Amino acid sequence: MMLTSRQIFAVASAVIAMGWLCPAQAQDAKPAEQPVTFFQNVRVFDGKSGALSSAMNVLVRGATIEKISEDIPPTDLIANTKVIAGGGRTLMPGLIDMHWHTMMVRPTPAALLAGDIGHLNLLAGAEARDTLLRGFTTVRDLGGPAFGLKSAIDEGTVAGPRIYPSGAIITVTSGHGDFRQQFELPRLLGKPQSRGEQTGAAMIADSPDEVRVRVREQLLLGATQIKLTAGGGVASPHSPLDVSTFTEAELRSAVEAAANWGTYVTVHAYTPASIQRAIAAGVKCIEHGHLMDEETAKLIAEKAIWLSTQPFPDEMADAFPPGSRERAKAFQVLAGTDRTFELAKKYKIKTAFGTDILFSAKLAQRQGELLAKLVRWYTPAEALAMATGTNAELLALSGKRNPYPGKLGVVEEGALADLLLVDGDPLANIKLLEDPGKNLLVIMKDGKIYKNMLSPSMALGGSDR
Ligand SMILES: [Zn+2]
Fold it and tell me: How far does the centroid of ligand 1 lie from the alpha carbon of residue 92, in Å?
């Protein structure tokens, strides 16, 4: 039988792809080539339970936690294993911030709207590194053009956390996320987009069809979940806090497009009306919820909807000038924080932790402090489980759109190796996380060490690496 050149090419490609022509190489690409890190003598907080383990040894191979054991696995103590002498300190999962805006942490609101996008990306890159060095190894980005930064982080160009991007915030005309000036009205087809839309920070949509287009655009760009603003917000100039924005049909259109893509919609919503409408439309997660009432809390619990809420710092209001409407709105939301957490606890709502820090590099430095603030309502163990294992459960709602397949937020065999070595016991003293520079001795993401303050790591056999 004669083969055509195309058939010969196809067979040759298959042979090469299957490694038949170079078996030695294929065998060499074995786990032995992957970097191995061995945490010796650590007590593990696994991201779920209320207590530390007894002294354990944790072996990380490549990006994965391979073995957790009381015994030292003898075969792995070879010359290329990096050994970290834990000295009985705590090994815990990397922290997760479920409400983060990678592109909006450092710039002022004015710079965000008018600044050069290259500059904004560089600011975001610098902040991403700092975020990781605060122990936050994953963030769910709830609005902003973070796709480029995510790529740069994933390929190793920039140090930073794993990012679950939403892409542009989708809003209605005058809604939370519409930062246009009055002279930019009316919006007409064929007219240039507003600045926020051009940069991919926020997209305006005013019908189910338009919502569908905007959602699908974000999915094309790589969104892992979709974010809509279902009610008014603090930072936006045209949306009073009390308003509901999208109609139920519009919300449902987004939910359907996201579900077809295997993922979900989360909405910014403070008020009972906006939360209830979103739930009726099939939304799976509510952001904030600070003005919710008892009836709404019950509904959230009954329908097993996620509440992704934040213990906002009082200084949040400082981003807005004294006397401004935005500042007044900030105080109104702050006043609802206590009640929201109380309702979340009372009705056992599935609650995720995030910070939603905007427009302040200084506030961002307090990311760990905001986590520690949860002990106003939770035990330290509950707070830490929320920021690790529980948050990761919400990340998993992205289903097949999850860009980091594998288990996050836990220390267990087979999970992804995002790990922190804490100098002390954060279950006894959660305030250790308020000073990550001092108390986080080792920070690992995806099996790679980004920080190691312990004495120079020694490979067994005595050679420094
Ligand atoms: Zn936000």
Answer: 27
Alpha-carbon gap, residue 156 to 43, rounded angstroms:
30
142 alpha carbon to ligand 1 midpoint, in Å?
A: 6
Let me know: does 440 contact 84? Beta carbons within 8 Å: no
Q: How far is the CA of 241 from the centre of ligand 1 (A)?
A: 14
Ion ligand 1: protein residues whose beta carbon lies under 5 Å: 142, 356
Burial of 364 from C-beta contacts in 10 A (0-12 / 13-18 / 19+)? buried
- How far apart, in Å, do the first and last CA atoms of the chain sit? 57
Residue type, 438: K
Distance 355 CA to ligand 1 centre (A): 8
Nearest-angstrom CA–CA distance, 353 and 377: 12
**Among 179, 180, 178, 286, which residue's Cα sits nearest to residue 230?**
286
Residues 77-114: tens digit of each pLDDT? 666 789 999 999 999 999 999 999 999 999 988 888 88
54-70 confidence digits (pLDDT tens)? 999 999 999 999 999 99
* pTM for the predicted model, two decimal places: 0.90
